[in-house]
Amino acid sequence: MSAFHTSGVTDSGASRSRVVSLDPLRMRARRHHAHALHRGERIWREAVAPVDLWIEILHGNGLEPRAALAFTVAQDFEADQFTLGKLPLDDIETLYGLQVQELSVFDSLEERALVQTRRANIVLVEVDAFFLPDMRTASYHREHAKTTIGIDVIDPDARRLGYFHHTGYHLLDGDDYDGVLRSQATPQPALFPHVEFVKRVREPVCGTPLAEASADALCAHLLRRPMHNPIARWRAAFPEHVDTMIARGESYARLYAFNVMRPLGANFELLAHYLQWMREQGFDIPVQTHAGARKIASETMVMQCRLARALSRGRHELCEASFDAIEDAYERVIPPLANIVC
Asked: How far apart are CA 309 and CA 296, in angstroms?
């Protein structure tokens, strides 16, 4: 399922090969298996959607996504939320030779996406999760929510496509195809969604050079790390946040946890995986930094549950013990890494 493997294939040849690959029997035989980061025991079942998407896109094309997780060291507290995780495009190009460009949709999303997938590029498009079968337990044919998918195969005659989303690879067809691509069977919207495409511009870095390039990225991201401990700044703002949650009720508290605690915990779980991978590549990464990152991930989950119980009983819970743990853990992760790497 390597969308970027195009050597010796013309656009027309790529078109034929991509349509053939949509045969249901062949697709089942070549079914995408989620990366190890998305299997087994996890503290946070899903990290942050854009990161999960890229993990599977890279993995689905035979690339090692853990090398791209150095950006996690630069997460900051932004007064009401933590910086949302997103793989830097410069890192993606440096490590994997993949370039992301904006796609101009000047007539039909289906036509423009078809042109790019025939070139063996992946099309990143913001769509309505209402039409995504992999969202059966959440939004599928229930409610409308925007999310980004990576389309790598389109068969317009059969109204089918293959796409990366969240923690896997999926297929859709029929009315869902029309809903996602807004084809001629569906009235065109007044405004097209934001669309990008991923193309190969050079060969990926592999082996030891990949680890070394990732180490360079780690140093660059550590140089742009927060000047002050972001956990301490969140702690200072937290009492006011709790007041707001009590005033606005359970539904707002759930939104708060999803948009504040989850990005923090999931980010540091990814950082723990990254540091372990770097150790496996032979870098002298102290065990305590890996353990500290996992502590932030796990204690943030504990904190989320503790806060939910307290709010359900109308109690004003400031989670002091959890803050003590994660604030100390941060000091045992980021500053030592900066001293070692940079």
From this structure: 20
Q: Rounded to an integer, what distance in angstroms lies between the CA atom of residue 137 and that of residue 145?
A: 13
Is residue 146 helix, strand or coil? Answer: strand
Residues spanned by CATH 3.90.70 within the chain? 11-200
Q: Which amino acid is at 308?
A: A
Q: How many residues does the chain have?
A: 342
For 198, the token pair is 């991923």
In the sheet that holds 160-165, the strands lie side by side as 98-102, 195-200, 122-128, 146-155, 160-165, 168-173
* Cα–Cα nearest to 322, from 197, 221, 219, 234: 234
Q: Which two tokens mark 119?
A: 């070139």
pLDDT tens, 118-173? 999 999 999 999 999 988 888 889 889 889 999 999 999 999 999 999 888 999 99
User: Cα angle at 125 between 210 and 43, to 5 degrees?
Assistant: 55
Q: Is pTM, for the whole model, over 0.85? A: yes
- Determine contact, residues 108/184, Cβ cutoff 8 Å: yes
Residues 205, 95: contact at Cβ < 8 Å? yes
Identity (one letter) of the amino acid at 148?
T
Look up the CATH number of domain 11-200: 3.90.70
